Amino acid sequence: MRAHQIMARHVITVGTEASILDAAKLMMDHHISGLPVVDAAGRLVGILSESDFLRRSEIGTQRRRGRWFQFLLGSGYAAADFVHERGRKVGEIMSSDPVTVTEETPLPDLVDLMEKRGVKRLPVMRDGRLVGLVTRADLLRAVASVAHQIPDPTADDTHIHDRIVRALDGANWCPLGLQVSVRNGVVHLRGVIMDERARQGAIVAAENAAGVKEVHDHLCYVDTYSGFYIQSAEDERAAAAKAAKERAG
């Protein structure tokens, strides 16, 4: 998938000369957490986000840097902080030089940019013109759309078994002595794990196999130092229920 397949095409923007009060109201009215900022010619020049309202003199949250730290940073940083905390126009508090993408940018690249640059939205450009916006919410909707995919016609028990085994094969956390049994789409996992995180990894691998209806965890945890082992929570509950039934009967 690429940016043009998930981006919002109707993008609400704000001008550099707009007041921060008008911008804040615009964001609240439209239930959005950020706005692309454009100049008088309509060119993208920045991004205004909720984080730009965190350090504000109106609410007493401006930065408090020690004198020694201010000396090390230089007077320019103090002046920039002052403007950002007291500026009245969008152009004074926005984040400049926004990270942008094109319509053909693949989703993995979008995610990498968001993580590396610490941003939640990416303007989509075409020939220097803003044509869309991709946000983390758009990525969430892309994930949710997978639930509507057409079922795999080969998702019988044998195929399910093979897919789970292939998914776990070669992983350095794969349970020892892994046994995967499948009946009518219901999966049972057995084996030995040395780390509880491997349990969740194996369960997720099974859940991701097309056609799986349920996953039952019978993986046994073994402490490598003491040799002490613990049954899965599911098996412990089953054993407790069986014992209670025997006592009652």
Automatic annotation (TrEMBL):
Q: Return the protein name.
A: CBS domain-containing protein
Checking InterPro entries in the record gives: BON_dom, CBS_dom, CBS_dom_sf, Diverse_CBS-Domain, UCP036990_CBS_BON
SUPFAM superfamilies cross-referenced by the UniProt entry: CBS-domain pair
Say which species the protein is native to.
Bradyrhizobium quebecense
* Lineage, broadest ranks: Bacteria, Pseudomonadati, Pseudomonadota, Alphaproteobacteria, Hyphomicrobiales
> Which PANTHER family would you find in this protein's record?
CBS DOMAIN-CONTAINING PROTEIN CBSX3, MITOCHONDRIAL (PTHR43080), REGULATORY PROTEIN (PTHR43080:SF26)
Keyword list (alphabetical) reads:
CBS domain
Domain BON: start-end pairs: 156-223
Enumerate the spans annotated as CBS domain: 7-63, 94-150
